[in-house]
Every structure is written in structure tokens, then in C-alpha cells.
Design goal:
It contains 8 helices and 14 strands. It has 311 residues and is an alpha/beta fold. It folds into 2 domains: 211 residues, Metallo-beta-lactamase, Chain A (4-Layer Sandwich); 66 residues, no CATH class. It has a 7-stranded mixed beta sheet with strand order 1-2-3-4-5-6-7. Strands 8-9-10-11-12 form a 5-stranded mixed beta sheet, with no helix packed on it. The protein has a two-stranded antiparallel sheet with strand order 13-14. Helix 1 links the parallel strand 4 and strand 5. 42% of the residues are buried. The C terminus is likely disordered. Bound molecules: zinc ion. Zinc ion (ZN) binds next to loops.
Amino acid sequence: MSAELAFNRSADVDYGVAKEIAPDVRRIVANNPSPYTFLGTNTYIVGSGDVAVIDPGPADAAHLTAIAEATRGERITHICITHSHRDHCDGALPLQERLGGEIVAFGPTGTTRGAGTPGLGDAFIDSAFTPDLPVADGDTVKGRGFSLDVLHMPGHAPDHLCFALVGKRIVFTGDHVMGWNTTVIAPPEGNMGDFLTSLDKLAQRHDRMFLPGHGGHVETPRRVVRAYITHRKWREQNILACIDDGVSTIPRIVAKLYGAIDADLKGAAALSVLAHLEHLIARDVVTAEGATDKFSAFYVRAASDAVSSSS
Ligand SMILES: [Zn+2]
């Protein structure tokens, strides 16, 4: 199994300029580049005349002005949010105040969010985000000239939605599947089991194009979804091999799998390993000694233990 995913990371981006990506789909990239957002957040405008805005992005005056200019003479009927990470949703209220539109999102999940986790706190997640119109898997957002099927795809975030443009085989994938990198799964915000289930759901569809929240469009959706799944299986096998070798704490697993990386990335890598371990624990493949956190020791449950405990 190969772990390498090939992405087109060409860096030509014209911030604030609406670019037609597909018929009746325009994209504007927000000028908020970072190690997590790549070149910035993609905002999509769907339809013409009456339009939906998917992910208004950060509350950035220049970006909101760019959306206003791109939709001049049109009416924003819906502001759809893939998930309540601030780089996607903070622009929702300011955009609504300026141009109107009903804010559509999954809404509060009732689960523990990442607030409190270093690097994943309130600066990153708006856990109080509340839409005008909460939607769930199977709902459809209808405008004049477009319909968006709502797909609940938790994993990266518990409230994560993808929106499928009906009749076009195009899915707006947010951060569930991205156009430039693998997705961050960082507990408690992220859940690896949910993420893999959501990928399986996406793998069963027959889409032609993904339009992600960061990075360019994906023209081989099924291949990318399969590669995402393969990448996670490969990572899980590596972690199990570490545990078999007696490398049984998260810091030591990170050191072995990631080598010398800087402190920031080490924190992200530790959370990713934790996400895999939680998924292994949930399936009774691995048992934790002590509390399941970044510093627990883990060991592989012997096959005979697993048999006796399940009988
Ligand atoms: Zn996100």
C-alpha cells in the first residue's frame, strides 16, 4: 500500500476574483493562507440570479466585498456552511447583514467539540454556531435554478456537511475531502471511525467532480476517496506495527513514524495518532492502559483475549 497522495498544488490564485469552475458555479478564494488552509478558504457561488453561497469564509472585509461584487444584481437566498470552523463560517453573519440569505448548516451537535484542545480551541472552532435553518442528511436546499442535497459527513468535524449539486454530479466537500492534502482528524473534534464511514458513503456515489474547501477542484473523485481510505489503512498498519515492536506511547509512535518534525506539527501528529488509536480501541484491537490521551501507553490485545472477551 502506498501512502503518497498526489495533489495538484499549483499556487496560481487570484484572491478576491470570482472564477467560473463549472456552469453556474463560481469560486472566490479568501486571502487567509496558512498551514491548515493552504492558499485560503474557497467560497463558492452556486446558481445565477438567485444564488447560494457555500462557505463565506473568514470575516474578512475584502473577501466579503469580493462576494458582494461577484453577486451584484443577484440575490443571495442561502448561505450554506459545511462546518463551524472559523475559516469557513465566520463570514456568515457579516455577509447576511450585508446581502441577506438564510444561513443553512447542521447546527449544534450536542457532542464535545475541540474547544480546549491546544491548537483547536475557540480561535479555530465556533462551537456556538447556530444556523437559521438546521439541516440533516437527506434534506435538500432548493433555490430557483439549483438544488443541493445535504450529505452529513462527520469525521473532520461532527457537524460536517457536504452539498451535492443535483443533476451535475458535483459535490462541495468542505474539509472532508480536500484538493491539496489529507484531512486533519484531531480528537475530540475529529473522529476517525466517523471519518472512514463518511468516506465509504462518498465512495458509493458516482460523482464527477469535488469542489473542496481548500485547494483546487478534484476531477477524479472516486480515486481520491479510495486513496484517502488507503492512506488511513496504511497509517493504521504502521501504528499497529509500532505497538507490536513495543513502541507504545503516542510521543514515541510520533517520533518513529514522523521523524524529526517541529513542535507544532508534533502536536498535530500526536492528535492524528490518537484518532487512529481511538478507532482501534473502539474495535477492541488495542487496549489503553490508563486514560486515553496523548500520553497513554497502548498495547495490542492478544487474539485469545479478544476471543474470550467476545464470547
Ligand atoms: Zn475544518
